């Protein structure tokens, strides 16, 4: 195979940990049956990460094979998640192909990668890494300026210090994107965070992880 063809072939593959059907457990489409494409690998090591099994391993799949698997589930909503999807350079091309196939597509990404050039049809759900995550220095703040009213910014909050830090960042963010506040699973009681949000009348959507309530830490759910 010629060198140029080899590069092109490599750009049409992704290392995938799992592809599965579940209910969307987060974001503003919570509760919808959704196909999740979980990519392998992540350069971050957040303290609250619940998908460390996706850090390595996985299976190399062509975009065609991924699209075929997704189509087989027969639902419109597709979320590309990880790991960190944007750690693999061919992820943007897959997102575009999923959109072209008529899917309602979102990506869950860490906020440490630029999302400005992604297909505008893709809903971008971007984390802000709080101090308790251990990765706050990785926040790529300029990329948040590219978000639109279709997109979402998610804060996973682990304690009161995280909450106060997040509230300060919220006041600084100039974005039309919807803001989501979630308690860190196992580190902050959902009711406690809800009480803080209500007391401060924050213009955010409070949410818990529906899939955790239903299935705990079971992979593929």
Strand content: 15-25%
User: CATH-wise, what's the superfamily?
Assistant: Aldolase class I
- Please list the strands of the largest sheet in the order they lie side by side: 3-1-2-4-5-6-7-8-9
User: Radius of gyration, rounded?
Assistant: 17 Å
Detail the poorly predicted runs: none
Distinct helical segment count: 7
**Oligomeric state of the chains in view:** single chain
Number of domains: 1
Helix/sheet category: alpha/beta
What string gives the helices and strands in order? HEEEHEHEEHEHEHEH
| CATH level 1 name | Alpha Beta
Helix content: 25-40%
Lay out the secondary structure.
Elements: H1 3-11, E1 13-23, E2 33-39, E3 59-62, H2 63-73, E4 77-81, H3 91-100, E5 104-109, E6 123-128, H4 141-144, E7 152-157, H5 160-172, E8 178-183, H6 190-200, E9 205-206, H7 210-215
Parallel strand pairs: 2-4, 4-5, 5-6, 6-7, 7-8, 8-9
Antiparallel strand pairs: 1-2, 1-3
Walk me through the structure.
The chain has 221 residues and is an alpha/beta fold. It has helices at 3-11, 63-73, 91-100, 141-144, 160-172, 190-200, 210-215; strands spanning 13-23, 33-39, 59-62, 77-81, 104-109, 123-128, 152-157, 178-183, 205-206. The protein has a single domain, classed as TIM Barrel (Alpha-Beta Barrel). A nine-stranded mixed β-sheet has the order 3-1-2-4-5-6-7-8-9. The longest helix is centred in the last third of the chain and has 13 residues, at 160-172.
């Amino acid at each position: 195979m010629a060198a140029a063809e080899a590069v092109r072939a490599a750009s049409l593959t992704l290392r995938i940990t799992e592809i599965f059907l579940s209910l969307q457990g987060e974001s503003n489409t919570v509760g919808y049956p959704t196909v999740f494409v979980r990519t392998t690998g992540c350069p971050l090591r957040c303290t609250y990460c619940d998908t460390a099994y996706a850090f390595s391993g996985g299976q190399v799949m062509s975009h065609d094979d991924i699209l075929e698997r997704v189509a087989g589930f027969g639902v419109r909503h597709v979320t590309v998640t990880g790991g960190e999807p944007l750690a693999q350079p061919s992820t943007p091309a897959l997102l575009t192909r999923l959109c072209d196939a008529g899917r309602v597509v979102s990506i869950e990404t860490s906020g440490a990668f630029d999302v400005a050039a992604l297909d505008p049809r893709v809903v971008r759900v971007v984390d802000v890494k709080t101090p308790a995550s251990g990765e706050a220095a990785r926040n790529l703040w300029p990329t948040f300026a590219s978000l639109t009213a279709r997109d979402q910014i998610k804060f996973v909050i682990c304690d009161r210090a995280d909450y106060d830090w997040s509230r300060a960042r919220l006041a600084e963010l100039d974005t039309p994107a919807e803001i989501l506040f979630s308690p860190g699973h196992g580190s902050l009681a959902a009711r406690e965070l809800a009480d803080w949000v209500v007391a401060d009348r924050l213009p955010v959507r409070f949410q818990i992880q529906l899939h955790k309530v239903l299935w705990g830490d079971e992979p593929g759910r």
